[in-house]
């Protein structure tokens, strides 16, 4: 048990929200929650908050749980860099706080260190409660925050023109050229069954 408050939410309530949103209790979302909390404490309060996650795992869910920034509303951006770091910034002033972890100190905390180290091989995960206890006690010692200034806002505010694909007839962002990404070799699916004709071009 802890009386920790993360972004104004009591720890136990945060765990319940995490289970509802993320699917299970996750050390990464917990650590991410501490990072979001500490970055927002240092950032001057703003109605123009944006957050960038530098990894696709765990952090985006901590950001969406704890801030008004979501993938869908465009105020959270996700970079697939595999870095456990985030930047909270004001999209008008471009001034922000970047939170990352102190990898020099991490070996002092064996459970966190073992959990964090990715060898690429399957491994046994420590029970959530044990790891969570170490994250709650020592996680804050691992947080590194630095003030940053963004080169530019990451949210694209231009409205993108669309057009109909010459091959499938579906609407897409014309930026990709005359055929949509799927019809120009970047498809991730094939239609099952015999009809190869896209539904939009059927009579
Ligand atoms: Zn197409």
Mean pLDDT: 92
Bound molecules: zinc ion
Structural class: alpha+beta
The CATH topology label of the largest domain is: 60s Ribosomal Protein L30, Chain: A
Q: How many strand units? A: 9
What portion of the residues fall into strands of 2 or more residues?
A: 15-25%
Rg: 21 Å
CATH architecture annotation of the largest domain: 2-Layer Sandwich
- Largest sheet strand order: 4-3-5-6-7
Query: What is the succession of H and E elements?
Result: EEHHEHEEEHHEEE
- Give the N-terminus to C-terminus distance in angstroms: 64 Å
- Count of helical regions: 5
Low-confidence segments: none
How many structural units, i.e. domains? 2
Largest sheet: 5 strands, mixed
Which key terms come to mind for this protein?
alpha+beta, binds zinc ion, two-stranded antiparallel sheet, 2 domains, 5-stranded mixed β-sheet
What does this structure look like?
27% of the residues lie in helices and 18% in strands. With 203 residues, the chain is of the alpha+beta class. The protein has 2 domains: 5-149, 60s Ribosomal Protein L30, Chain: A; 162-201, no CATH class. The strands form 3 sheets. It has a 5-stranded mixed β-sheet with strand order 4-3-5-6-7, covered by helices on one side. It has a two-stranded antiparallel ribbon with strand order 1-2. It has a two-stranded antiparallel sheet with strand order 8-9. Strand 1 and strand 2 (9-10) form a beta hairpin. Helix 2 (27-42) crosses helix 3 (59-66) and helix 2 packs parallel to helix 5 (128-138). The mean pLDDT is 92. The structure holds zinc ion. Zinc ion (ZN) is lined by residues 165, 167-168, 170, 179-180, 182-183.
